[in-house]
Amino acid sequence: MEILALGVQADEKPLIEAAFGAPHGVRCLDVFLTEDTAPIAAGYEIISTSVNADLGNRVLQTLAAGGTQMIAQRSTGFNNIDLQVAERLGMTVARVSYYSPYSVAEFAWTLGMAVNRRIVRASNRTRDFDFRLDGLMGRDMRGRTAGVLGTGKIGEAFARIAHGFGMRLLGWDVAPNPECVALGMEYTDKERLLAESDLVSLHVPLLPATQHLIDATALRTMKDDAILVNSSRGGLVDTQALVTELRAGRFTGVGLDVYEAEAGLFFLDKSLEAVPDDVLARLVTFPNVVVTSHQAYYTVDAVTQIVDTTAQNVLDYLAGRRTGNVLVPAPPSS
């Protein structure tokens, strides 16, 4: 049985082909799943999708009409999938519930330090043989406060790095992580964490309760010279409100690996097009902002785990096994 994998990056392709291999073939396409591309999946019982796939009602209807019965998403997040529709259509949907938390945690710190030490600006200057230091002054992290919103596996890994820097740790989550408590993290409410933290990093899933977790009020609560990092999901931040605060001259730096309207933009080459997203266009002009294209997970270690787990999800489906990676029927809201 041939499996169709959509939204495959060039670096991913050999890993996917090796993971699926015999006895199942795999057809890898770099196009992303949308309403326009969904008909491509006709005749494929099993497809594998990327995190930016559109798996809303209309796409799922098209897939089901074409014979697709199983969707194996190559990501942990699943906010792009209408699970209720998938269940109604009798489709099995599986995700990757775990992969290397260090890939994302380390990248979050890469973003944080890049804006703190003005790495992008410095690199651009030296390419023009401008070796001045004006405007490049950063701050030591030692002795400052890191606020971690979401202290699961990734948040814990982020906190361990912060602990290594010698930072004070504040955490916010539905329940304390004992490993973080052992590092000296103090759990508190969101408002106090935002008010006292020099660097705030987001590591919570995107749910209705966390949509725009960092809204205009939250942004105004933060220190004027704070650093904000989001390597989780774009919808956690009200980007328009963030632009408003940046225009007022606030924040030492902002590092974003995700954007709430990234679908149809991230992972694609738009360099020769006029991007109609005015908010994103304004955001990337700020000298204290670094935006990357949802690449925090993108290490050989993490992607190998993701692909291998996706292949196992397919094998489990074919064998009639139900594992913790299966999302349908939809899990209860948390």
Automatic annotation (TrEMBL):
Name of the protein this chain belongs to: 2-hydroxyacid dehydrogenase
Taxonomic superkingdom: Bacteria
Gene3D superfamilies referenced in this protein's UniProt entry, alphabetically: NAD(P)-binding Rossmann-like Domain (3.40.50.720)
InterPro entries hit by this protein: D-isomer_2_OHA_DH_cat_dom (IPR006139), D-isomer_DH_CS (IPR029753), D-isomer_DH_CS1 (IPR029752), D-isomer_DH_NAD-bd (IPR006140), D-LDH-like (IPR058205), NAD(P)-bd_dom_sf (IPR036291)
GO molecular function: D-lactate dehydrogenase (NAD+) activity; NAD binding
D-isomer specific 2-hydroxyacid dehydrogenase catalytic domain boundaries: 9-327
Pfam families: 2-Hacid_dh, 2-Hacid_dh_C
Tagged with keyword Ubl conjugation: no
Recorded family membership: Belongs to the D-isomer specific 2-hydroxyacid dehydrogenase family.
